[in-house]
Amino acid sequence: MTIQGSVGSIRRILVKAPDPRSLESWRDYGWRAAPDAAIAAREHAAFRDALADHGAEVVVAASTAAADPDAIYVYDPVLLTDRGSIMLRPGKRGRRDEVGAVESDLVREGIPVLGRLAAPATAEGGDMFWLDEHTLLIGRGYRTNTEGIEQLGALLGSDIDVVAFDLPHAQGPDSCLHLMSFISPLDRDLAVAYPPMVPVRLMELLRDRDIDVVEVPDEEFDSMGPNVLALAPRVALALEGNPRTRRRMESAGVQVHSYSGDEISRKGDGGPTCLTRALERD
Prior knowledge:
This protein is α/β, with parallel strands linked by helices. The chain has one domain (10-281): L-arginine/glycine Amidinotransferase, Chain A (5-stranded Propeller). 24% of the residues lie in helices and 26% in strands. It contains 7 helices and 15 strands. The protein has a 3-stranded mixed sheet with strand order 2-1-15, with helices on one face. A 3-stranded mixed sheet has the order 3-4-5, with helices on both faces. The protein has a 3-stranded mixed sheet with strand order 6-7-8, with helices on one face. The longest helix is centred in the first third of the chain and has 17 residues, at 37-53. The model has no long low-confidence stretch (mean pLDDT 97).
């Protein structure tokens, strides 16, 4: 069993329920619109049920990050390795209190701290994922800087190949564009992606590794078509409302489950991967 992978069957997973008081700060955190707290709570409960139905033990975080609606996106403050957690340092300043909160939840679950990033490094989980147990892909952009990538490389050690790519400018530093905004792994040889945003060197790497790409159509990029959580190899959890992407994944042999997330996902630009941090995978 390893956590240095993104597609093995999930056995244990961390989530954080939305806090009604924190959701009131939606404007300060750049959410698209005001979330309805009651509907958000129902959506998140149904989302947890979907994870449990797959067989995952769902761990609900007990920590708090006051006045921070983004805290529900537990993928971003930490990177998990087989040796323990690396606590990151978000590029979005308002999210930095999440790091200590998530650390307390992970320690409670018996996961030791391997290391922490220090200023001036910045890095967010959405800019990285394990391609395999020896390869970590990282996007260098407005949320993850060069110092962050270098510190991660030093903490991971020489047995891990850290491969970094420049992310596109897109809508600029005030928008939320992570590496996983436009690509998600579905199996060791399959990913779903929006190619117009994917760096050339990353497309070449996928080709060289014989990883096929399910292409997201233009009209389903902004609605988070590429942000998909692999529950197991070729078993995916996706946000409702991207029918063409779903059909294309199914044509590639992927079993697709969906959830309703207008409040917890669309308004805050955080899909199913953002809402979770897998703690154990087969």
